[in-house]
Amino acid sequence: MQADFDYALVGGGLQNGLVALAIRGRRPAARIAMIERGTTVGGNHTWCFHAGDGRASWIDPLVVRRWPSYDVAFPSYRRRIDASYACITSPRFADVVTATLAVPGSQLFAGATAVDVRATSVVIERAGRTDELTARVVVDARGPDRGVVDECGWQKFVGRELELAEPHGIDAPMLMDATVEQRDGFRFVYLLPMSPTRILVEDTCFSERAYLDITATRDLVEDHVRERGWRVQEVIREEVGVLPLPWSMPRPRVSVPIEAGYAGGWFHPVTGYSFPLAARLADEIAALDPERVDVERLRPPTDRHARQLRYALALNKMMFGWYPPDQRWHVLERFYRLPEATIRRFYALELTAMDRARILIGRPPRGLSLRRALRRESRTTRFEERP
């Protein structure tokens, strides 16, 4: 087949950025096209991952900061977990991915909308013009706004990266500070210290409603900053997100074109941490030979992911269906009492049978409502068949 490109990557977010880097690491001469509707790749995000999740060397250029440990805090329990935690920012991501595409034979189509995605071609619209790009391999990873979930809760957040007038004194990321007032579901504050005086403060809810009141949530961030006595010198940036936390969704499948990222169900339905899953799939896609495309090689990792996903969907059904909104923090508090290795494998969706038993065995977390569980019995945990 004569084609314009070896790979056409539809969407310039985390998943396809990692696919591009993984391909370049394996096949330096590969011709890669990336179609992104925004003006640049990566959007406005901060991605983090736990120790061991970023195992490939091609990930290292993306990392802007690593910490040897992180904290969690609940009303009756606090813990420092001695495990590495790493951060990737959109500006670094955009720089690295754009440089990867800035080689002869490859091209970034920014400001372009994919209007028709096929097995070996993509029709794009850009600046009022329609073009068709052909490729040996097409990867569709257009994000969480394409309706891939059925029944779900929502992870909603507003984060502000702040430059402070004095050092903040936070020496490790705070992944969950659930000692704050509970509202709109399970609420916690996330703190990411980027430098002695720069910090990301994020207010997050696991809610049954998709609506996010950005102004009110921004006010909660500012309240938290004031309570800590921090003086803000400058607001560097703000990020906002509403992500699905499903208990029912289509099963990931092997298909042509390849469905990846949120579009293909490659995300963590309980935590929203997509990085380890995106990196794993990127490695698998990069291993395909574009000259003799055999997508059936993706079946074993897809089936493994589907098995892990089914368990995670059941946990979401339990958390949203069995616990009143203001009691959900008990579920997470109990989870963070587990061994560090189990916690890491959970975030990476690489749970062993023993891990799954550890999470569910024993006395249920406090706050369980039997009446609520029975009332929500009709909420099923299932994979839907895709058309």
List keywords for this structure.
Alpha-Beta Plaits; 387 residues; 7-stranded mixed sheet; alpha/beta; globular; single chain; 9 helices
Number of helices: 9
Helix-strand topology string:
EHEEEEEEHEEEEEEEEHEEEHHHHHHE
What's the CATH architecture name of the largest domain?
3-Layer(bba) Sandwich
Structural class: alpha/beta
Question: What does this entry look like structurally?
Answer:
It is globular and about 65 Å long. Helix 1 (14-26) runs parallel beside helix 4. Strands 1, 2, 8, 9, 10, 11 and 18 form a seven-stranded mixed β-sheet that branches. A seven-stranded mixed β-sheet has the order 6-5-13-14-15-12-16, with helices on both faces. It has a three-stranded antiparallel β-sheet with strand order 3-7-4. Helices cover 27% and strands 31% of the residues. The mean pLDDT is 92. The two termini are 28 Å apart. It is an alpha/beta fold. The protein is built from nine helices and 19 strands. The protein folds into two domains: 1-68 and 83-150 and 247-387, FAD/NAD(P)-binding domain (3-Layer(bba) Sandwich); 152-245, Alpha-Beta Plaits. A hairpin with an 8-residue loop joins strand 13 and strand 14.
